[in-house]
Amino acid sequence: MNSQLIQLLVLAGIAVFLIMRLKNVLGTRDGHEQQPQPKPQARGATTPEFEVIEGGPDLDITDHVDENSAAAKALSSMKRIEPFFNVTEFLGGARSAYEMIVMGYEKGELSDIQPFLAEDIYESFVDGIAAREDQGLTVESDFIGVRELTLVDATLDADNQEAELTIRFVAELTSVVRNAEGEIIDGAANEIKRQKDTWSFARAMGTDDPNWLLVSTDA
After folding, report:
1. Helix %, strand %, coil % of the chain (to 5)
2. Which of 208, 205, 171, 176 is nearest to 190 (CA)?
3. Total structural domains in the chain?
4. In whole angstroms, what is the distance from residue 171 CA to residue 153 CA?
5. Looking at the domain assignment, is residue 35 inside a domain?
6. How far apart are CA 205 and CA 22, in angstroms?
7. How does residue 97 score in pLDDT terms, banded at 50, 70 and 90?
8. Average pLDDT, stretch 19-30?
9. For residue 37, is it within any domain?
């Protein structure tokens, strides 16, 4: 038997071996096979029982106002103008701004908070501090924290795209007012008082200026 014939026999044997292995792995099809049945789900396996439908309510809005309210529609319009606007993040910033503004006024230090105040609010703060100084009064305050924060309303002016969000704050702080002689005439250093304020912040959406201004301070 010559070498060429031996090589052909070896190759044929390898081919037969590979075909048999493929049949064992893949199986054969003759047109009458049953379709594979779905495997029973293992107990405890987590498979969604509902389909997630896109276009549902925006939880960033409905977590703070009623879905069908005018405020919700205004917030949706704000997001259409500025897709990256986030209500929850805004409220977090408002919480920090509230503390900073309250303490700035209590201490009579307005330079740091002026960029966050509308002009008429800034002027009213200046007048209030001036009246306090004219009477020789000083205030010592310690801010403890915001205990409650509620988004009360949201509006959007369709003409100038000015957004306004109204927030109800409930905060705790200590405050002592002393007269010119240093005597306490109001409050106590160890007495925590609860302060409630309803503030409105406004900003023109879609502009390069990211700052919200305090435009109303109704108590």
Report:
1. 35, 30, 35
2. 176
3. 1
4. 19
5. no
6. 66
7. very high
8. 41
9. no
